[in-house]
Write a structure and sequence with these properties.
The chain is about 30% helix and about 20% strand. It is globular and about 60 Å long. By secondary structure, it is of the alpha/beta class. It is built from twelve helices and 14 strands. The termini are close together. The longest helix has 19 residues.
């Protein structure tokens, strides 16, 4: 058993952080100036020492065990621009983070190869894409929240966490956020949240503690993959109110671990109820926390990824060992 050397890209920072909890070395492609998609080891996320900056001009001089693509241009352009022919014959994985855009059921996935493992992050995504001949595996999200952060809920407002909502429109629920906000006090955080009258971006490491003061988490998204912030909110015991669409329909048990519905009016009424009844909010949030811990624990996520890496490389990963300090949320391996 040994740790693998894995080349990948900085496509979704939060996801990359959770992926890097696996006991491997992740080399992250970077370019001068850190343009989008080539940030490497950058930003405010508390990367571990196993996350290593990898200038694209140096990729051809490195030895890797596996290549993990996370976007189309990486698969169709970068592997031919920056990888040697021998590197392109290495085991390859493509992580599909999103639902199909052009058509919800009939869009063919752009990766069409029987020697690439296509990993979907939700069962719903795998269901909706036409995956063709490409082998498919589903690895659901896994997240970490600080042990010293727990839901308080004293602020009688709802919180929405979406990046660039003003630009992403109806698919991410721009109109629903505006409509609900006329009846329920809602704050928006995320990249460029100010364009929608929001508060701005909250750093990843500070987000759970920031969320904990709000009475509820509202997720107005119509059609996308499962948001990590939703799971993080559930993990701290925060009640979630969401549209019962995509994978969210299986995450929230309506009336037991949160509220999920396709009726905006009904969701608005539920949020108003939670604002009036903090004890109910706490009860729903606790049920949601238990559900999230059971389904989205980081150890299950790491185990699933280790199985995927072994499937494509034939190399077993080191076993996880208990954390030496439970307040330190960095996982260890041996």
């Amino acid at each position: 058993m040994r740790s693998l050397n894995i080349l990948t890209w900085h496509t979704h920072g939060s996801y990359l952080y959770y992926l890097s909890q696996a006991p491997h070395r992740f080399y992250i492609a970077s370019k001068p100036g850190r343009p989008s998609g080539y940030g490497g080891r950058c930003g405010h996320i508390p990367w571990g020492p196993n996350v290593i900056d990898m200038p694209v001009d140096e990729i051809k001089n490195r030895q890797f065990d596996c290549i993990v693509f996370q976007d189309d241009h990486q698969y169709f352009d970068d592997q031919f621009a920056f990888l040697t022919p021998a590197q392109r014959r290495l085991p390859r994985i493509y992580i599909e983070h999103d639902t199909p855009r052009e058509h919800p059921t009939d869009m063919r996935h752009p990766v069409d190869a029987d020697d690439v493992l296509l990993v979907h992050v939700t069962p719903f995504n795998a269901l909706m894409w036409d995956n063709g001949r490409t082998p498919v595996k589903v690895i659901e999200h896994g997240v970490i929240v600080p042990e010293n952060v727990a839901y308080r809920g004293g602020l009688e407002r709802g919180l929405v966490v979406i990046n660039n909502l003003a630009l992403r429109g109806r698919r991410l629920g721009k109109d629903i956020f505006a409509e609900a906000g006329r009846q329920v006090p809602l704050d928006l955080v995320g990249m460029d949240a100010q364009a929608m009258g929001g508060l701005g971006e909250i750093r990843h490491a500070q987000l759970p503690a920031f969320m904990a003061d709000y009475r509820l988490f509202f997720h107005p998204v119509r059609y996308t993959s499962l948001g990590l912030a939703v799971i993080e909110a559930m993990m701290i015991g925060m009640p979630v109110v969401a549209l019962a669409t995509t994978e969210m329909a299986t995450v929230i048990e309506d009336g037991r671990s949160g509220y999920a519905d396709t009726d905006i009016g009904a969701l608005t009424e539920k949020m108003q109820t939670l604002l009036r009844h903090p004890a109910l909010a706490r009860q729903l949030g606790e049920q949601g926390r238990r559900r999230a811990l059971a389904r989205f624990g980081i150890r299950r996520f790491v185990d699933d990824w280790n199985a995927a890496f072994m499937e494509v490389t034939g190399i077993a990963a080191p076993r996880m060992r208990p954390e030496p300090d439970r307040a330190e949320r960095r996982l260890q391996w041996c």
